[in-house]
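DM from R.C. (forwarded with permission)

"hey, sorry to bug you on a friday — could you get me a structure for this? deadline for the figure draft is monday and I only need the backbone to look sensible"
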Amino acid sequence: MEFPWWLPLVAGVATGAAVGLLNGVLVAHARIPPFIATLGTMSVAYGCQLIYTRANVVGSLKDSYKSIGQGAWLGGVPNLAVFAAIAALVVWFMLKHTRQGANLYAIGGNPMAAKVSGINVKKELLLVYLYGGVLYGIAGVLLASRLGLANALTGRGMELDAIAAVTIGGVSQSGGIGTMGGMVLGVLTLGIINYGMSYLGVDSYFQLVIKGMIIIVAVYFDMKKYARGE
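My reply, with the result:
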């Protein structure tokens, strides 16, 4: 049975939004630490996908769907680069030029102080996790389109890349500190590191070790900076 090309796109984004909203509920209302909440829902999501697909690869995707991630605009600019630029600009605008962005920085810095100052912390947390879920859904759709296939474990391990990239980009693990420009720079830096290691033929297992060390070193210096009050 064939589906229209837009149906998996909508389904992927809707699924991401639903999981993101669930994470928001767990963090904001159940008061579960964010890392534990997201780690738990990630495991549940992987398990549900494996049960549904029986670990089979989903292939034979339509060319109209694959062209979303594999195509390019006039001038040869890849669609993925355009999507990434749009997402970065939207997030930058929200963080820099909206009240909600200021609220998120306040909540990240000190949730109790933010609550006392009149910010609806639970609502803002629900919304930011929902936004994140939408972006994760879009990323999943684009990844499947780019690869031309997918299975339940496609993208597994990329959470390590995400943590490493934002940490390199100056996002504080203590919360309340970080910029969109820094995150983009961190992503580009990690991309160069990954490409360089692959080009040099570094074993994929050693690449995991190196990424883990990058995270540890970056967080260490971040905590030292936070302790000095900079």
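R.C.: lifesaver. The radius of gyration is 19 Å.
me: no worries. The chain has a mean pLDDT of 87.
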